[in-house]
Amino acid sequence: MKSIILASTSEYRQALLKKLGLPFLAVAPNIDETPILQESAQALVMRLSHEKANALTKQYPQHLIIGSDQVCVIDNNIVGKPHTFENAFKQLKAASGQKVTFYTGLCLIDSATNQFNVQCEPFDVYFRPLTDEEIANYLNKDEPYQCAGSFKSEGLGVSLFDKLSGRDPNTLIGLPTILLLEMLSQHGVNPLLD
C-alpha cells in the first residue's frame, strides 16, 4: 500500500482520518487560498483541494495525497473562518433561521502517476432562530473562531441547529470520509482489509 499524505495541518481533518485506522503523515501544503473573482463556492473548494494535494507531489513522489477545502455559503455569500468574536457573531446572526450550505472539496492524487480525482460534497445545515444572547453564550463556550460558519458541529454547535441534511456528517467537520474511502478504494486501499 502506498503511504498516505494529508495535505493539511487541521486537527479536525487529522482526527477524522485517524478514525479510519490508516497510517498517514499530515503536511502543510502552503498555498495561496485567495478566491478568484466570480469563482463559485464549488469551483473554489475543488480548485483549492487539488492545489493543496498537488503542492506536495514533488516532495512525496510515491504517495497518495489527500487535499480538502471547505467553505460555508450564507445567503449566496461565501463565508470563511471568522477569527474573532465579532465576525463569528455576525455569521451566526446571518445564519439564524436560515439554511446554510457547506461545500467541501476533496482531492486524491497518486503522485507516482499524477492521476487525480477531485469532487465537491455539499452538506446543508438548517439553523433554528437564535437570540443574540444564545449566539454570544455559544461563542464564549465553544470559541469556534477557526471554523467556517462559526460553529463546531462536534461540540455545542449542534444546539444551534434545527436539522442537518447530507450524505456524510463528517463533511461538516471538513473531510467527507465516505467519499474519501470511495476514492482510496480505487487505489486498492480498504481499511477493512489492510
TrEMBL record:
Native species: Providencia rustigianii DSM 4541
Keywords: Cytoplasm, Hydrolase, Nucleotide metabolism
Family statement drawn from the similarity comment of this UniProt entry: Belongs to the Maf family. YceF subfamily.
Keyword Metal-binding in annotation: no
A single GO BP: nucleotide metabolic process
UniProt-listed Gene3D superfamilies: 3.90.950.10
InterPro entries: ITPase-like_fam, Maf-like
NCBIfam families: maf
Function as written in the Swiss-Prot or TrEMBL entry: Nucleoside triphosphate pyrophosphatase that hydrolyzes 7-methyl-GTP (m(7)GTP). May have a dual role in cell division arrest and in preventing the incorporation of modified nucleotides into cellular nucleic acids.
EC numbers for this chain: 3.6.1.-
Active site: 69
PANTHER family tied to this protein: 7-METHYL-GTP PYROPHOSPHATASE, BIFUNCTIONAL DTTP/UTP PYROPHOSPHATASE/METHYLTRANSFERASE PROTEIN-RELATED
GO CC terms of this entry: cytoplasm
GO molecular function: nucleoside triphosphate diphosphatase activity
Cofactor: a divalent metal cation
Catalytic class of the enzyme: hydrolase
Record-given protein name: 7-methyl-GTP pyrophosphatase
Site location (Important for substrate specificity): 12, 70, 154
Catalytic activity: N(7)-methyl-GTP + H2O = N(7)-methyl-GMP + diphosphate + H(+)
Pfam families noted in UniProt: Maf
Annotated compartments: Cytoplasm
